Amino acid sequence: MLALILCIVFLLLLVIVTAYAERKVAAFIQDRVGPTETGPHGILQSVMDVVKLLQKEDIIPSAADKRLFALAPIVMFAAVLAGFAVIPITPSAIASGAYLGVFYLLAIISLDVIGLLMAGWGSNNKYAVLGAMRSVGQIVSYEIPAGLAVLSVVMICQSLDLQEISFQQGILMNQFAGLEQEVNYLFGLKALNLDVTNVGGITTWNIVRMPFLFIAFIIYFISSLAECNRAPFDIPEAESELVAGFHVEYSGFRFAALFLAEYSMMVLVSLVAVVLFLGSWNTPLPNIGSVQLASWTTGTPGALTGHLWGAFWLLSKTVLLLYTQIWIRWTYPRLRVDQLMHLCWKVFTPIMLALVLLAGLWRLWMI
Amino acid sequence: MSLVLIFFYVFGFLAIASAAFMLATKNVLYAAFGLLVTLLSLAAIFVLLFADFVAITQLMVYVGGVLVLILFGVMLSNQVQGRAVQSESVNGISGALVAGILFGGLAYLILSADYLYLEGINVADAAPVNTKSSIIAIGIRLITNFALPFEVASLILLIALMGAAYISTEDKHE
């Protein structure tokens, strides 16, 4: 129960900050200044936006399917929120230590699609239905390269437990039950015989343990943009064609819930990318001889220092990815539908299939 | 009554109620969303029975795959006519008769089979609690004892995929 409340509060904060960052970064990229009036440098802008949304009239179109229309934002947010349950925040803090965490995440995200269809259909608006259809087609397609990228990590780590995957990517590995005797070699290759178990830092991150996972990371990140309907894959919300896509009829509190669900999804996919590829809550700084940078910036797991350092590294990496998402949105133009499908099916899926095979081979060289 | 048992009955009731709703409602889209609740409750019941892998696979395959396709199909076919597709219930009496006979037969079979004498049932009872997850056992079985059915299933899926691709390809020669 405590984890749920903490998670919701943390999400609200992060979403408000991201919404503000979105406007400010967009402004700087376009050589403007962005919000300046509310608070110093406009930092209260998104708080005020939320307050404004909450006091607006809750409009349900008379021709809409009222039950589906009302239920859709709840389903969407619940689906995304459920995903946060298996994300490890620090070495000893995870809401649900489900052994099948990765698999669960992939499955629960598909509930989001149902919410989207509910919203699109319930609105009884041609733009909303078109937006929902485009969005679902895109999400279902991009789940395949994203799923294969996750699979290649799972094959390297031999685990579906996100906490175990996290422990494998740092100096604390031998403290995890079941991994006491494991050894991390540089690039994962036993033949090199360079033991980096106690060096930690970036040398034990998954993208270094198996260097080709960096390609998988890029593909996962691009696919996750498509799953969040973010630019350059925002054709479901294309303003010039569909007004706003599936949420065109929503206003007031319900729009706020949809907005929250979308931004939470951005946070969730970034968190998953960090946990799977970028060393989770582990520090990027390695131990170099007597300069124990990794040990200094890890703290004691279970104690306050362990919690603070773990959360700090996880969140700073996540925030970096969120910034990249915003940066990409204001840099690249929108893809056409056929280009979108071409990229997914003819470029990403074959590359990922080859990478999954390579990951299997690499695993043989690791032991 | 333990908490697990209470949850079991809650989700069991939800599954049956939503299935009944699915049959009773005239709106095809509502029926599809009724199916969503049924599938979610079934997944919850699988979790309560220590079948975590089956539960998540249920979500993945049925909710993420089948149900989305059903909704897609309903939406696409609905747009053409311009009004909500209605599902009518026909053959009420004969349908109820067949369902009743089937239920009676299955109930008789289940009640007359004595599972407690099954070999390994007492072992199986304690086993899942001691392991982290059922996935390890499932994985090992799939590539040893059940390798052939596993491969045959994947072949059938591949054939279905090729068939679907063939049917949906427009014939360029005509």
TrEMBL record, chain A:
State which Enzyme Commission number(s) the record gives: 7.1.1.-
EC primary class:
translocase
- TM stretches of this protein: 68-87, 99-121, 202-222, 255-281, 301-323, 343-365
Q: Where in the cell is it found?
A: Cell membrane; Membrane
Indicate whether Transmembrane helix appears among the record's keywords: yes
Listed A to Z, the keywords are:
Cell membrane, Membrane, NAD, Quinone, Translocase, Transmembrane, Transmembrane helix, Ubiquinone
| Listed GO CC annotations | plasma membrane
Its primary localisation, in coarse terms, equals membrane
Gene Ontology terms for molecular function: NADH dehydrogenase activity; oxidoreductase activity, acting on NAD(P)H, quinone or similar compound as acceptor; quinone binding
Q: What is this protein called?
A: NADH-quinone oxidoreductase subunit H
Q: What is the source species?
A: Adhaeribacter rhizoryzae
Automatic annotation (TrEMBL), chain B:
The molecular function terms in GO held by this entry are: NADH dehydrogenase (ubiquinone) activity; quinone binding
Asked if Transmembrane helix is a keyword of the record, the answer is yes
Keywords assigned: Cell membrane, Membrane, NAD, Quinone, Transmembrane, Transmembrane helix, Ubiquinone
- Under which main EC class is this enzyme filed? translocase
Q: Which reactions does this protein catalyse?
A: a quinone + NADH + 5 H(+)(in) = a quinol + NAD(+) + 4 H(+)(out)
Q: How does it sit in the membrane?
A: Multi-pass membrane protein
| Listed EC numbers | 7.1.1.-
| Keyword Heme included in the entry's annotation | no
Q: What is its main location?
A: membrane
- Kindly name one Pfam family recorded for this protein: Oxidored_q3
Name the family the entry cites.
Belongs to the complex I subunit 6 family.
What is the role of the protein in this entry? NDH-1 shuttles electrons from NADH, via FMN and iron-sulfur (Fe-S) centers, to quinones in the respiratory chain. Couples the redox reaction to proton translocation (for every two electrons transferred, four hydrogen ions are translocated across the cytoplasmic membrane), and thus conserves the redox energy in a proton gradient.
Record-given protein name: NADH-quinone oxidoreductase subunit J
Please name the source species. Answer: Adhaeribacter rhizoryzae
